[in-house]
Amino acid sequence: MSTGLSELEVLRRNSLTQLRELGINPYPAEAFEINAHAADILANYERDKTAYKNISMAGRIMSRRIMGSASFVELQDSTGRIQVYLKRDDLCPDEDKTLYNTVFKKLLDLGDFIGIKGYVFTTQTGEISVHVTALTLLSKSLKPLPIVKRDEEGNIYDGFTDPEMRYRQRYVDLTVNPGFKQIFINRSKVINTMRGYFDNQGWMEVETPILQPIHGGAAARPFATHHNTLDMPLYLRIANELYLKRLIVAGFDGVYEFGKMFRNEGMDRTHNPEFTSMEIYVAYKDYIWMMAMVEECLEKVALAIHGKPVVKVGDYEINFEGPYEKLTMYESIQKYTGIDVSVMTEEEIKTVCKSLGIEIDNSMGRGKLIDELFSEKVEANLIQPTYITDYPLEMTPLAKKHRSKEGLVERFELFVMGKEIANAYSELNDPIDQRERFEDQLKLAARGDDEAMAMDDDFIRALEYGMPPTSGLGIGIDRLVMLMTDQSTIQEVLFFPQMRPEKKVKITTDEDFVNAGVPAEWVQAVRKMGINTIEELKAANPNKVFNDLGGMRKKLKLELAMPSKEEVTAWFA
């Protein structure tokens, strides 16, 4: 037997052995046919009872009540939970009652996957249930699930609620907190709605390289790797923009891609180093056209999720029905700070940033200084969907110069709830101008800006063959899903967010408990209470431990005098 197992894990492994000794394979290879699901049965049984006379379904055992020769189980499948009724003589019509008396009652546990066959009926209390006529073990669970308890009002306590544990063990989280599944169902709806909208316009979904020889398309720090066969450095893409625009050069009128991007930067409530972005490029359009397209697309997304364009986010009701408010970058800064940066030099903007307590460094050029000022003083005010337009030339090396405003580019970002959701340009298609912009980026890199773009000679060569007027857009899917599902952290909308390495739990011996102050004669009782590490002991409630000790003393029939509450409290010092 492996060391470091809890008492429950040891018991489950013993059950596993006994099942095999009975000739039952706890992990059978055969397919199990399913013709019914919990949600369908609960929704439709009363309307058509004849349709559920011979059902086959599968799921986890989430709770059970054993009452002698009959028992009730709560079975959870991919759609929800339903009550299951097992009667010994129906399950075992012959003399051999092993399947019920031994396998079901003694060797199955909460969390085990089972397959059942039977028929649906309504109990005397009016609950729709499945009467089981055949039962098959499909997978034995060797680790006990956290027990989520609910009071009479349905309030959850003792739940699996620690965020780090939930994100690290998402497979447990979504099992015992199935309500969170809806976030990811809605995430899929967001992507599918956008994809359907683009496809209906005749634009084509494509794939571009994730490993790229030059990191480009955005101002960000890349992840670097090395290809052994080619003996060359490669980068995980920070954007797919330059490859998608190559396809516009190739003659496609509209291309888009949903894909993973990777940026070797900080992590917080709205940033994950691996994230999903949608980028789309449409020929013969500009950024003004793109604003109308974004409004139409996001309204469709809101309708798909909520049935209306208004979405509740925190204390706000966000209206995704266009048109959205528009402010230029300079106007927004002046509106919320009273400062007109449009007439200021780089040094003057540095002075303003310092006076406002904004952290800057010498690597920052004029564009980045304006961006910092905007981020610190403007973004948080942009609650309803708002376009920030016409950015300084220095901030956007891939956008076309503004048709009428000197020193600006045709760009917008869409902000909602103080966060950027979308970024779009009238794309720069002048190869000579583009080379000069890249050269300016190289100068910033020389000053220490590790987010500056690299020179991409092949992309410039593509532009030299000619790219038609084009509008491009990028939308952060994770942030959009956060909005549409009213989540405050990006980790809630990612199945598997990036985490720090998991701390290995040191195996706690009886001696460790004694050294922590637990008398040797009480260590067995503490372990029986589910406390198997010093960390779990220190995290427990002293009063609860004291009360539970009394019950465990009776259960284990320990002929020991109860320690005082003060003595138990000392274990937690």
UniProtKB/TrEMBL annotation:
Organism: Pedobacter heparinus (strain ATCC 13125 / DSM 2366 / CIP 104194 / JCM 7457 / NBRC 12017 / NCIMB 9290 / NRRL B-14731 / HIM 762-3)
Entry's localization field: Cytoplasm
Keywords, in A-Z order: Aminoacyl-tRNA synthetase, ATP-binding, Cytoplasm, Ligase, Magnesium, Metal-binding, Nucleotide-binding, Protein biosynthesis
EC number in record: 6.1.1.6
GO molecular function, one term: magnesium ion binding
KW Transcription (keyword) present: no
Residue stretches making up the Aminoacyl-transfer RNA synthetases class-II family profile domain: 187-501
Name of the protein in question: Lysine--tRNA ligase
SUPFAM superfamilies on file: Class II aaRS and biotin synthetases (SSF55681), Nucleic acid-binding proteins (SSF50249)
Family that this chain belongs to: Belongs to the class-II aminoacyl-tRNA synthetase family.
Reactions this protein catalyses: tRNA(Lys) + L-lysine + ATP = L-lysyl-tRNA(Lys) + AMP + diphosphate
Subunit structure of this chain's protein: Homodimer.
Positions with a binding annotation for Mg(2+) 1: E413, E420
Biological process per Gene Ontology, one example term: lysyl-tRNA aminoacylation
Record note on cofactor: Binds 3 Mg(2+) ions per subunit.
Class of the enzyme per the UniProt entry, highest EC level: ligase
Cofactor(s) it depends on: Mg(2+)
A cellular component annotation (GO) from this entry: cytosol
NCBIfam families on file: lysS_bact (TIGR00499), PRK00484.1 (NF001756)
Binding sites annotated in the UniProt record for Mg(2+) 2: E420
